[in-house]
Write a structure and sequence with these properties.
By secondary structure, the chain is an alpha/beta fold. Helix content is 41%, strand content 15%.
Amino acid sequence: MKITVICDVLGQPNNGTTIATLNLIRHLRKKGHEVTVVSADEETDGEKNRFVVPKMNFGPLNNVFKRNGVVLAKANKKILTEAIKNADAVHIQFPLFLGSKGAKLAKKMNKPLTASFHCQAENVTSHIGMMNVPLVNRLVYRTFYRNVYRYCDVIHYPTRFIKEEFEKETHPTEGRVISNGVNDEFFHQSNQRRVSDKFTIVCTGRYSREKSQVTLIEAVALSRHKSDIKVIFAGDGPDKNRLKHRAEELRTDCEFHFYTRPELSALLNGVDLYVHTALMEIEAISCMEAIACGLVPVICNSKRSATRFFAIDENNLFEEKNAAALAEKIDFWYENDDLKREYVEKYSEMRKSFSQSACMEEMEKMLMNTIDGRRQAK
């Protein structure tokens, strides 16, 4: 196959969507397919099968996007046309400026078209302080549908949760639910040396308001075992200084650090508990990685997050933004180590479904079936 992948956001692998995109590209190339990538990633300029478009210029708002680690691509019809013309199929990663133009051109050029759903409405509205305004979120979803998804032969949804959420706000779609999967490295559990003598909790993810890491900091401050708890926030993001200040203010033992994949795998094998605080999430790869490494998760029970479905029962859930409720769950697992080992076994079946290799095989099959479907229709 010759596949053109169009990415509004692509660069350093410091967020789940970029990592998922790079995994798909690597998998397809490893299987012998020719993959052409269109993005604003200047570091790849000049590389084979790479088309680099300009970045969007938002004037005085550029610093806001920069602080949030977001660089958006500007649609360029000439470059997109050149990248699409020889493709057997086109795959869109984001329903933004570049993806929208790419979808319309692919439709006009009669190319089989697929797209992944990686962007919740709240990922957009959180930047403008309107994350909790249903009407605005609904408008964002309808704009996504109008600009990209209505043109698609097939839509890839990482979870059934986001498929149902999107279709509720727009229209029924031809969708495939395929996880982005967890890198096989996280399944190689080892007797890693403990990272601390204290009861250690890891919380992985981008430091931002919608991830709500501050709830964990405040929960540890309320814990009966505060003096014997250490928290490691694995990630980076615009909220780093605010979170560090809150941790210092409450005198909690917290570390903030970005980890490479091998480092994160080693870290997860040397701690006691994983806490997932995000208020909204399509698919929490970070939580899946923790489970793959044999950790028991405690997850925010937010209706806007698919992650809550990874909970076996109430012992794995806490009420969103409720530090006292989270403190109780942390104390519960601190005091029930034998039960924790039982839950690790209970999660063993779930871990099997996280294999990235199997998930990427399904993505490849989706693309091939879309191309074959078009040929049969002709």
